[in-house]
Specification:
- The structure holds two protein chains of two kinds.
- Helices cover 28% and strands 18% of the residues of chain A.
- Chain A has eleven helices and twelve strands.
- In chain A, helix 4 packs across helix 5 and helix 4 packs parallel to helix 7.
- By secondary structure, chain B is mainly alpha-helical.
- Helices cover 76% and strands 0% of the residues of chain B.
- Chain B contains 14 helices and no strands.
- The longest helix of chain B has 38 residues.
- Chain B starts with a helix and ends in a 7-residue tail after the last helix.
- The chains are: A alpha/beta, B mainly alpha.
């Protein structure tokens, strides 16, 4: 049984006199114990709202409705009362946020910000808590932890701050860790270090990790299973290797195609996905990606596409998926119907995927951060 | 820390020189002078000139200023032209009353304002929020002297709960040491005297507190609302901390910064703004005395008052800056 089973999660913001916003619209995914799962998508696709809804951290406001289920170890987190939810947060399920500076309290020393978790969930006080906090900082690679405990967030570098936040999150050895774009605010070399640290931590402790990111490089480097989100829906779910080798949903194809690659030919241009994420207020009835899709057919508009379950556990929501078999999807620029697959066609604007090689390591994985493991 | 305080106090010197020179010249440019106040309409030009000569007002203005500064160094502010007593003596008698009143008003404003503003933010959009926001608007709009009269009419003349005037019941025969009546009562263990002086402060304190209270409620509310949306509050929630810890440790302390700043500015304003309240409650502070001095063109009293207010202002704001460094490590002073 999965550790976390998110089923048909929906988050809507209703405001008087305005159309209801569906920020998350029936998202389902599952996380097994010790697994690393990616939630990938553009800004505004609902990935952060999904994680906040699971944690019960969405800002309370009138008109906010959270539906569906998020079952963690047999209990539905969405049905818990405030008190039991606080008991689980930080102890069994922890979270790391995007901007480490604003996520730390500027007027409280790092030490107290670490020990308060220990006091709350492990009942540790005084010297014992101090010692454990220093050990935690040491474990996340902060040198001279005793001194750092007395310092304030503004005295730490960006990478140190994110390490400190990670220390707070793993303080109680949670079984699930949700990382919401943990490296976005950091520069590239620090990003790699933080990802490495997260990977080590989850491997050593058996913690499951939900990695929320827009960076396919991050996903390629560490996730076992990947969920691609678009406009509040999961459009494709697959294990890492199949996803990068054979993306089926045109949106995934587009995402992979718009990543710069070192092995691209000189002067070759990037293939951005045309348009932008549709305003959620004008929610189309059919596939949300249809207006930007190069493989759009008539059936795309009308009603949302059903989830198609393919072999080896993959699934996608598309009536006209990209074909399998090492082919490049055709560039049906603005075309009504997709033309027949034409292998080797030069990439054109709109939904063209970089040609996947046979070996996944050489595939369209953008700047992989580690060697692929079989 | 120590160097910071010394530096700030040294900065006071040029401030005071500039301020005093400006006001010295400005006051003497006002139409009419002490001779008019003393003689009224009937004085002949010769009599006026004689008084001016007597007070040294016939000399060039810079020479007058020089003499003022020389005396000031010896902490002598001159002699009041209306009461004929040394200004310093007058101030020692009257200033403590105003300070007590101001402190009382600020204690009321802070003691009610911060909790009320905080609760309003927590219950945003609900009854308490609307009441406190609306109430603070009324607090700002009602003229202080009007509120003072209303309070006096209801609580002292009708209900008889509080005394209607003065600083202390003279029949108690309390010992005077510093002229801070409450403080004196505590020092000499004359508890009834201290309590009586405190009792006399309640109504004028309430009246004077109305505007700072309203401002503190609004600033606290806005500041708490802002901090509630901060990422670090979400982090604290994600750690599973109890609501009490999140509010007390993470929200309130960060929300206090703008409130502390406003407290500093408001306190200075109250010292000089206590005139009307003191008049209504026949409270022998410095406010009424200075108001009188303006009519009398009592230059030494006015100069002395303004300089003291300036010094107090700087000291209060120095305290505010120091408390900043306690609240916020990012502005730690060196």
């Amino acid at each position: 049984m999965a550790l976390l089973e998110v089923d048909d999660l929906s988050v809507t913001f209703a405001r008087r006199g305005q159309r209801t916003v569906h920020a998350v619209d029936g998202v389902s995914f599952s996380v097994d114990a010790g697994e690393v799962v990616g939630l990938v998508g553009e800004s505004g696709c609902g990935k952060s709202v999904t994680s906040l809804a699971i944690m019960g951290l969405l800002p309370k406001q009138p008109g906010l409705r959270v539906g569906g289920k998020a079952v963690f170890d047999g209990t539905d987190l969405l049905q818990l009362d405030d008190r039991s939810r606080r008991d689980i947060r930080g102890r069994d399920v922890a979270m790391i946020f995007q901007d480490p500076l604003s996520s730390l309290n500027p007027v409280i020393p790092i030490g107290l910000q670490v020990t308060e978790v220990l006091t709350r969930h492990r009942g540790m006080r005084g010297e014992a808590a101090q010692k454990e906090a220093a050990d935690l900082l040491d474990r996340v690679g902060i040198p001279d932890p005793r001194r750092r405990l007395r310092e304030y967030p503004h005295q730490l570098s960006g990478g140190m701050r994110q390490r400190a936040l990670i220390a707070m999150a793993v303080a109680c050895q949670p079984r699930l860790l949700i990382a919401d774009e943990p490296t976005t605010a950091l520069d590239v070399t620090i990003q790699a270090q933080i990802l490495e640290l997260l990977k080590d931590l989850v491997r050593d402790s058996g913690t499951a990790l939900v990695m929320i990111t827009h960076d396919l490089g991050v996903v390629a480097g560490m996730c076992d299973t990947i969920n691609v989100l678009y406009a509040g829906r999961v459009v494709e779910t697959a294990r890492r290797r199949p996803l990068f080798r054979e993306p089926r949903h045109p949106y995934t194809v587009g995402l992979l195609g718009s990543v710069p690659r070192l092995d691209a030919g000189r002067g070759e241009r990037l293939n951005p996905i045309p348009g932008s994420v549709r305003d959620l207020l004008a929610w189309p009835d059919g596939c949300a990606f249809a207006p930007r899709c190069a493989r759009r057919v008539d059936e795309c508009v009308g009603e949302p596409p059903e989830l198609v379950l393919a072999h080896d556990g993959r699934s996608y929501r598309c009536v006209n998926p990209a074909p399998v078999g090492g082919t490049v999807p055709p560039a049906a620029t603005g075309g009504r119907t997709a033309t027949a697959p034409a292998p080797g066609t030069a990439p054109a604007a709109g939904g063209a995927s970089p040609a996947p090689a046979d070996d996944a390591t050489a595939g369209p994985v953008p700047a992989p951060r580690e060697e692929e493991k079989p | 820390m120590f160097r910071f305080i010394v530096r700030r106090l040294l900065q006071l010197i040029p401030t005071l020189i500039g301020l005093s020179l400006l006001l010295f010249i400005w006051l003497r440019r006002l139409p009419g002078g002490p001779e008019t106040a003393i003689l009224g309409e009937r004085g002949t030009p010769e009599m006026r000139a004689a008084i001016r000569r007597n007070l040294g007002l016939d000399e060039p203005i810079l020479i007058q200023y020089g003499r003022f500064v020389r005396r000031l160094i010896k902490l002598d502010l001159g002699t009041s032209t209306s009461t004929k007593r040394p200004v310093v003596t007058e101030f020692i008698e009257r200033f403590p009353g105003t300070v007590e009143l101001t402190v009382m008003a600020m204690v009321i404003a802070i003691g009610i304002g911060i909790p009320l503003g905080y609760l309003a933010a927590r219950r945003r959009g609900r009854m308490l929020d609307h009441l406190s926001v609306g109430g603070s608007l009324i607090g700002i709009c009602i003229p202080v002297f009007f509120l003072a009269y209303v309070l006096k009419a209801i609580f002292s003349e009708n209900l008889g709960w509080f005394p209607s005037s003065g600083r202390q019941d003279p029949t108690l025969g309390a010992t005077r040491i510093t002229n801070f009546f409450v403080f004196d009562g505590l020092m000499t263990r004359e508890w009834d005297a201290a309590a009586d002086a405190l009792w006399h402060l309640v109504l004028p304190g309430l009246a004077l507190a109305s505007i700072p209270l309203a401002i503190i409620v609004r600033i606290t509310r806005a500041s708490v609302l802002e901090v509630l949306n901060e990422d670090f509050v979400r982090t604290a929630e994600a750690k599973g901390l109890t609501e009490r810890t999140v509010r007390g440790r993470h929200v309130l302390r960060n929300a206090m910064l703008p409130v502390v700043t406003s407290i500093g500015l408001l306190t200075g304003g109250l010292l000089s703004g206590a005139v009307l309240t003191e008049t209504v409650f026949a409270f022998s502070g410095i406010g009424a005395f200075v108001a009188e001095a303006i009519g009398q063109r009592d230059y030494p009293v006015l100069m002395g008052f303004i300089l003291i207010i300036a010094v107090v202002y700087v000291l209060v704001n120095l305290l505010v800056d120091l408390s900043y460094s306690v609240i916020d490590p990012r502005v730690r002073v060196r």
